[in-house]
Amino acid sequence: MLIKKCVFAFVLVLGMAVHSSAEETWTITSLNWEPYSGAELTNQGNSIQRLRELLRKEGIRLNVEFYPWTRAQAKAKSNKYVGYYPAWPEEVGTSFVASPPVDWSEVGILKHSPASVSFESIDELFQKYTVGVVKTYKYPSLISDAMEKYPDHVDGAPNEMSLLKKLSKGRHVVAITDPNVMMYLAEKEGINNIETIKVLMEKELVIAFRNDKENRKRLELLKKLLNEL
């Protein structure tokens, strides 16, 4: 009888441990950056879904709260959150630590279709034209250096939708952002007078983990899951 009770107790404890693991939840902040992430998108976007499927392998649930990008980064400092995602590595703040790439995006140059645009370098692009950007993004140094050099030729929009509308109306003839985002929004809005003229680079999409002991453990788990792909 004693053996049966011990076996039952062991099974009960084991079951509770498995149940506890299966119910772990990571809560992150994010932004509406379609098609990568978005509150109204199926599965909350391609990049969110990719992360969710990775974590599901360990029985971890993913909860995502969407905010404007600057606010998303600020709120993620609270211990309620694991961090924020998807971020370019340049956007990982000093109190956060970057994961390996979970997904990939692009940075490219788009133009107002009727306009004629010619340039040999990013520096020349900013020298010759007013360039639209999203002012809450921290761009790679190739672009941010030119923005600092030619501040009067930088037109900052608060978000991608505003950038799209400025470009489509010819407020500026060129813009730099992720072409996938802009073309997705253009199709959604019925806008057909913008085009991608050059993809400059692929950019990693990482989780910015709040830098503490528990999150460093989570980071190691995520690395393991990514290495198994």
TrEMBL record:
The keyword Magnesium does not apply. It comes from the Bacteria. Residues 1-22 form the signal peptide. Keywords: Signal. This is ABC transporter. It comes from Desulfoluna limicola.
